[in-house]
UniProtKB/TrEMBL annotation:
Residues 103-201 form the 4'-phosphopantetheinyl transferase domain. This is 4'-phosphopantetheinyl transferase superfamily protein. One of its GO terms (molecular function) is transferase activity. It comes from the Bacteria. InterPro entries: 4-PPantetheinyl_Trfase_dom, 4-PPantetheinyl_Trfase_dom_sf. The lineage of its organism: Bacteria, Pseudomonadati, Bacteroidota, Flavobacteriia, Flavobacteriales. It holds the Pfam family ACPS. Keywords: Transferase. It comes from Flavobacterium keumense.
Length: 219
């Protein structure tokens, strides 16, 4: 039962991470799915994706929920039938959920060299120039945190049209820190988020985000 890690972030926020080592058959035997989820699972082309999807339900069970407590809105954002907020992520052999009384978003990303090639698509030019002054390894790690932060914020706001590069800025941080802030400026709305980050294993990054304030009208 490879529950990899549980992080009790605060009294109302818990992060549960699964290390997916089980076969599809094993997970499939252990997990009960509602009709919609069963259809989704059956339609998935990749077995890894199916295992990740099922492992999320194992995490739900750890927290006292089942697939029957979970539903998705029209954008694909997951919700629980009670008041708790939930966010979901999967990356290779890791999957995770975050549960909170507050609006939250979570992302796990593998640290990959390839991220350097797409950096200009999600980080602005000034920020990129500063980041490029550090060594390659740290550059990749920092880019991965930034990417994860923007994905996590996107999962909270869930709005079409948000550009990672133009609308979300992550404040500078060091890799030996564990948190930073980020701002979303979109459609005349300004909102600040707290970003928490850490390493999972050697080359995976975990990021989760909280809203610091309700959206305010930008001047
Ligand atoms: C939807 C999105 C956030 C998923 O993130 P991802 O890193 O690809 O994948 P993850 O495994 O971390 O997350 C997948 C989970 O996110 C959740 N999710 C999907 N759409 C969502 C949405 N609109 N809002 C919140 N959560 C969402 C789902 O729970 C999904 O898993 P599940 O369907 O198996 O339950 C991402 O694909 C996306 O659309 N990003 C914004 C687009 C963008 O601007 N990209 C970059 C431009 S440079």
């Amino acid at each position: 039962m490879p529950l990899y890690k549980t992080i009790q972030h605060n009294s109302s926020t818990q992060i549960l991470i699964w290390n997916i080592t089980e076969s599809f058959e094993q997970l499939n035997q252990e997990v009960q799915l509602n009709e919609k989820s069963q259809k989704r699972l059956d339609g998935m082309k990749s077995e890894m994706h199916q295992r990740a999807f099922l492992s999320i339900r194992k995490l739900l069970a750890q927290a006292g929920y089942s697939d029957f407590d979970l539903y998705y809105d029209e954008f694909g954002k997951p919700h629980l039938i009670n008041e708790k907020h939930i966010s979901i992520t999967h990356s290779h052999h890791f999957s995770a959920i975050i549960l909170s009384n507050e609006a939250v978003g979570i992302d796990i990303e593998m640290q990959r060299e390839k991220i350097q090639k797409i950096a200009h698509k999600f980080v602005n030019d000034k920020e990129l120039e500063r980041l490029q002054k550090i060594n390659t390894n740290d550059y990749i790690k920092k880019l991965t945190v930034k990417w994860g932060a923007k994905e996590a914020i996107f999962k909270i706001r869930n709005e079409k049209g948000i550009s990672f590069k133009d609308h979300i800025q992550v404040a500078p941080f060091e890799l030996n820190e564990t948190q930073t802030i980020a701002n979303l400026n979109y459609n005349g709305i300004n909102q600040q988020f707290t970003i928490h980050f850490s390493e999972l294993d050697t080359n995976f990054t975990l990021v989760y985000a909280f809203e610091n304030n309700m959206p305010t009208q930008a001047n």
